[in-house]
Backbone:
């Protein structure tokens, strides 16, 4: 059993992380009354659903970010799923019902992640982001502000739907690999059936031919509980925070003579290889070939890399178009912008400012971000090896 020891509830005037413990079992609810649940949650949130209004509408992108791409609290949303563009306020943009809701017991409300965890991390980061945008200076490495900002960056990387899609793919490939292993030959199938009968005391009379028929006629689907997605998100934040902490922060700002503006998508952290001919299994952590873009406003983009010196650099329209292209290609559902039409780079290197052309391009673009790709053959090979080891151990 693995445990998540995340953030600790801060006292007034202190900057300490909030600590949560989530069970690794996605089928078990979270509880404050057992070792499989929460610790140090405020008494104010330990109340029944009838005693408070639960927050059901959860922001995939926080409002502190949305407002920096707004005009009069309104943003333009490019909806990839429905292939349309519309304008709405920051309250309604990039929202999904119960996106962070978790199963709980012991009086802890299901919206505790949205109300407490995310609110605390975002609240710490907002004045730091504002200072970077206004003063164009970064927090000192190792300071409390630095720790708060890199924790926020790790959360922004982990919270979006792209990671959930990747996790869904891993589980589905795992289920398919399990099925292939079980049905590989009749001798293996009969051996596994015998062991199941011995371990459960239940007589299983499923012939190999019937099992093959069922495999060929049934489709494998995977339904991952939101609680498990949230646990994965928080665990990934713990892993990525020290990695982000080692990187150098830079700021790119749009040239004063340019009308180009950045956009932000539901995948706001954008790892990108500097070299055009990088290897197919390219990964960004500890990689000097990596730039990580994080558009923080319509006019400024944070860039993390492993360079020695921090820089604040004015950039031309072409650079903004490139970042917007990466944001669009990495998006899962929505792209947020201050204006309906914004500059982005076509595949041939020219630029466009048509949202309709971009929607058409995205409808034909199916490639996942390199760090999110699941290598089916590699995963199945590892699973097969694990199954073989298990089979040898139980013989």
Residues:
């Amino acid at each position: 059993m693995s445990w998540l020891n995340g953030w600790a509830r801060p006292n007034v005037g202190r900057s300490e992380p909030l600590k949560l413990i989530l069970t690794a079992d996605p089928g078990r609810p979270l509880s404050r009354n057992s070792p499989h649940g929460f610790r140090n949650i405020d008494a104010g949130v330990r109340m029944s659903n009838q005693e408070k209004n639960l927050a059901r509408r959860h922001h995939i992108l926080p409002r502190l970010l949305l407002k920096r791409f707004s005009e009069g609290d309104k943003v333009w949303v490019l909806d990839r799923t429905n292939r349309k563009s519309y304008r709405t306020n920051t309250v309604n943009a990039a929202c999904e019902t119960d996106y962070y809701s978790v199963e709980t017991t012991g009086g802890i409300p299901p919206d505790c992640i949205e109300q407490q965890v995310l609110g605390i991390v975002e609240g710490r980061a907002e004045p730091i982001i504002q200072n970077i945008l206004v003063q164009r200076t970064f927090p000192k490495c190792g300071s409390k502000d630095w720790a708060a900002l890199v924790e926020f960056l790790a959360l922004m990387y982990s919270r979006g739907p792209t990671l959930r899609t990747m996790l869904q793919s891993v589980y589905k490939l795992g289920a398919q690999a399990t099925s292939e292993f079980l049905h590989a030959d009749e001798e293996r199938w009969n051996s596994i059936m015998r062991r199941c009968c011995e371990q459960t005391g239940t007589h299983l009379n499923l012939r190999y031919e019937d099992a093959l028929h069922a495999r060929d006629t049934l489709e494998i689907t995977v339904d991952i509980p939101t609680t498990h997605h949230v646990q994965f998100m928080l665990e990934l934040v713990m892993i990525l925070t020290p990695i982000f902490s080692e990187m150098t922060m830079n700021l790119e700002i749009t040239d004063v003579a340019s009308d180009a503006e950045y956009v932000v998508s539901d995948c706001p952290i954008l790892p990108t290889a500097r070299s055009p001919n990088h290897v197919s299994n390219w990964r960004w952590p500890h990689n000097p070939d990596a730039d990580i873009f994080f558009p923080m406003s319509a006019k400024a983009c944070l860039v993390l890399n492993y360079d020695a010196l921090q820089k604040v650099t004015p950039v031309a329209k072409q650079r903004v178009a490139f970042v917007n292209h990466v944001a669009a290609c990495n998006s899962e559902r929505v792209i947020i912008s201050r204006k309906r039409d914004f500059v982005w780079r076509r595949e041939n290197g020219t630029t466009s400012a048509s949202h309709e052309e971009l929607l058409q391009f995205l409808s034909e673009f199916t490639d996942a971000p390199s760090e999110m790709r699941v290598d089916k053959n590699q995963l199945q090979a590892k699973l097969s090896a694990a199954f073989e080891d298990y089979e040898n151990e139980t013989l």
Remarks:
- The two ends are 25 Å apart (CA to CA).
- The longest strand covers residues 290-297.
- The first helix runs from residue 63 to 66.
